[in-house]
Amino acid sequence: MKNRNPSKSSQALLRAAKTAMKNAHAPYSKFKVGAAMLTTKGEVFTGCNVENASYGLTNCAERTAIFAAVAKVGPKMRIRAIAVVNDHGVPCSPCGACRQVIYEFGPEARVFFHSKKDGWQEAAITDLLPEGFRL
Ligand code: THU
Description:
Blueprint: E1 2-3, H1 8-21, E2 33-39, E3 44-48, H2 61-73, E4 79-86, H3 96-105, E5 110-115, E6 119-124, H4 125-128
The structure holds tetrahydrodeoxyuridine (THU).
The site of tetrahydrodeoxyuridine has 15 residues, from helix 2.
């Protein structure tokens, strides 16, 4: 995992994630999350967390973005990078379920996330999820 200043293109991704975060439906956790993913073809898709009164039905921002991408351009899309932000300024690397979903569509994806304490972090999905499941 690297601590570094994001490149121009990752800065655009982070801005898109922040914009998406504003649409989060997080009345239960009060923790808003936004994600923006870049496909290998250069398209950007965004998502936010969508919670539910039945807590377990919550969808994370990362999976919202990925599912939106598949719905729009189909299952052959591949993730080059995904950025995640939250409104608490704490480190927010993707949860285990989202790591597996990122890996499905982006075995070489780079993941960016931010915290006030550590700044921007960048990691390969395979570092966050060693031995990801494949059929
Ligand atoms: N959440 C995300 O959207 N992405 C993450 O990477 C971590 C957690 C959401 C799920 C829930 O709505 C809230 O954050 C608190 O767990």
